[in-house]
Amino acid sequence: MKCPYCGHLDNKVIDSRLNKECTITRRRRSCLSCEQRFTTYERLEVMLPMLVKKDGRREIWDRNKMAAGLEKACEKRPVSCDDIDAFVDEMESRLQDYPSKEVPAAVIGEWVMEELAKLDEVAYVRFASVYRQFKDVNEFMSELKGLLDSRDEQDPDEAA
What digits encode the pLDDT tens for the residues 18-28? Predict the structure, then answer.
């Protein structure tokens, strides 16, 4: 591992820990040249299907891109970084189980929409307004009505 401070390649691991799900190893390292300490994270690399965009382009799944979009939707909302990480983990898990080597980006968008509605309704509306590209206020209001109707179906006592 290359030292981020001096670029030297020799370092030693001081401490290793697994996350709660045992899917990521956090390693604390010390450079043998400059003695600076830094942290690295190891995650199992899995083969995920290619994303097929609306225009037919193909892209590799980018965990950071998904997390950045969720962070933007959840900005100033009571959604923790751990919640976002768990959300992205769930999306990756779904992708691993996807039966094809390619998945339409629209499928992932719908997965995000359904899960985000459960996580935070305001973040859902923010994401939906960008994802659905509403043409006017009526389309936006229709989406909100659908969200409210599904919420009332889930908990009829709250509606009263």
Answer: 988 788 899 99
